[in-house]
Amino acid sequence: MNAAAFLTSLQDATQQLRATAQAELEPLELTLLNYKPSPTAWSILECLEHLNRYSRYYNPQLAKALTRPAAPARAQETGYSWLGRKSVAMMRPENTKKQTTFKHMNPSGSRLGREVVSEFLAHQTQLLDLLAQAQQADLNRKAIPVEFFRLLKLRLGEALEFVVVHQQRHLQQALRVKAGLQVALSC
Predict the structure, then answer these.
(1) For residues 150 and 138, what is the distance between their CA atoms, to the nearest angstrom?
(2) pTM tops 0.70, yes or no
(3) DinB-like domain: which residues (predicted)?
């Protein structure tokens, strides 16, 4: 896919993530946001806090990579390394295989408040800004250290897609918790 179309699809997905969180999750009461369907499952706020923890790492890394001058992205085809293809595929929402997260990225048992939703929405706005900046970047340049093993690097385009699909995956998880909550309340 050419870089312009690739970035447009990521921008559209990010705008949808933000709109969904604002419409479906932000209005909920704190007790509902903290509802856990089971002792080992994440609440809505835990899903969002997990994403916030990743955004706290990846957004600054993306911003740093985008400050480096590069050729315009318009004519490029977005490429993938083996690591990038595997990382994106693992996080796609349609991949139903359960993934385990690293301990420092696992928010289970954290005391969370409404600020988690606000921070998530702020990260989406920041990501949209980064995607706009990426229009002038080389998306195929290896520039983003992988969070759990920083010697490995993702290409800029791979990292942007990884962030977006990871967010889609966990926002869908949060929406499933909300749907289960509605069923639990109606019983």
Answers:
(1) 20
(2) yes
(3) 14-174
